[in-house]
Every structure is written in structure tokens, then in C-alpha cells.
Design brief:
87 residues, alpha+beta, 20% strand, globular, disordered C terminus
């Protein structure tokens, strides 16, 4: 099975969205619990490009098999103040 890794293009976004939403439903690998729309992922993809971060896709004979990116670590995560508790 041949696999090709390339930069994602806008026509890849529906497949990326399907993969992302499957991960949300079946794992804790992403810091999100709400399904994304294709429009959400298009905006995300454009923001990644504007920040200079790549979005890569792995393609096989059936189409997009996976995607990868990197960037700021959980930029939108809530920041919790560490505290110590005693009984």
C-alpha cells in the first residue's frame, strides 16, 4: 500500500473533519468534546496557514487516511491555578 504525505488543500477538509470528529467521539486525544463542522475546520486550516504551521495529510488509494499538524500547545485551554489542599 503506497502512502503519500502532502500539504493539505481545502478539498481535504471534509475528510480531515470526519477523522477529527471520530477522534472526539472515540478517544481523549484532543482537547475538545464538541464535534466540528467543515466550516470550523476550514477556518482552523486557514488559521494554521496564517500562523505558518503546516497541515499535512496522508493519502492512500482510498483518499485521506490521516492528517497531522503542530503549533502552540493548547492555546485556548483554560489555565488552572495550582493549589495544595490538606485534610
Amino acid at each position: 500500500m503506497d502512502m503519500e504525505i502532502t500539504d493539505a488543500v481545502e478539498s481535504d477538509i471534509p475528510a480531515i473533519t470526519a477523522i477529527y470528529n471520530d477522534v472526539i467521539r472515540t478517544s481523549t486525544a484532543v482537547f475538545n468534546d464538541a464535534a466540528a463542522s467543515v466550516e470550523d475546520r476550514v477556518a482552523w486550516w486557514k488559521a494554521r496557514a496564517a500562523q505558518g504551521y503546516p497541515v499535512l495529510v496522508a493519502r492512500d488509494a482510498s483518499g485521506v487516511a490521516g492528517f497531522a499538524t503542530f503549533g502552540d500547545f493548547r492555546r485556548d485551554a483554560r489555565v488552572w491555578e495550582p493549589r495544595c489542599y490538606r485534610l
